[in-house]
Amino acid sequence: MHAPIPADWREANRAMWDERVPIHTGSDFYDLDSFRAGKDSLRAFELAEVGDVTGRTLLHLQCHIGLDTLSWARHGAAQVVGLDFSEPAVETARSLARDLGLPPDRAAFVAADVHDAAEAVPDSSYDIVYTGVGALNWLPDMDRWAETAASLVAPGGFLYLAEFHPLTDCLDDATGTRIVHDYFSHDAWVDETPGTYADFDAPTVHNRSVEWQHPVGSVVSALAAAGLRIEFLHEHDASLFARFPALERQSDGCYRFPADRPRIPLMYSIKATRPERLP
Fold this sequence. Notes:
Elements: E1 2-3, H1 9-25, H2 32-36, H3 44-50, E2 57-61, H4 67-74, E3 79-84, H5 87-99, E4 107-111, H6 117-120, E5 126-131, H7 142-151, E6 153-164, E7 188-191, E8 209-211, H8 216-225, E9 229-236, E10 248-249, E11 255-256, E12 267-273
Parallel strand pairs: 2-3, 2-5, 3-4, 5-6
Antiparallel strand pairs: 1-7, 6-12, 7-8, 9-12, 10-11
């Protein structure tokens, strides 16, 4: 159902995520044993679009348990910092960093609200500010998020985000062919589904969550208004999971519609740079 923004949206979401951290750490979905053994959690298109991170500093906003953050360190980033509002998630990320032999000066994790990132992280700016998939839908205000994220990009650096395309949330779950929700809705979406994407059958208590849908145009406009220059907006015909029953798993591990069906964007990515100096 659609509803106005509940006053306790942040607390409800934090309770939901805190409860799911131990479920995720023990799940086949995250497969932490394989990750510790060297499995990369980043997607091929992210690695190609971000490029070489060797020797660069990287801040990962809304990092959850830190797999993507630590993967960037494995790819050569000089320092990675992950931030998440869930303390259990941050503790898990710190434990994983220790397991990988990464000291705090190479991989640090901070528990804080994303809007407080500028005050919470150890440095004032980073070569790369990164936001991985499934992050923006938990925030009500793209302008406020973009101002915070952009303020942490060093001159000459860039912000990179990869996200699920909001169009997918407008379509019916059964077929993905009918538009059943308003693409431009600004209302909060309140859900009370138990379990989690990593284990649909997991018994859970804190099931109430609050999410928002952000049209791609609002994200791009917010980043531009925050002073960043949009280098590209790419739309992708693949998803990371079977969002609709018709999606088929491909050899690269992503899910796409069959070749005989018209394609739609299932994900998108943006790179936005901060000029070395103002004109």
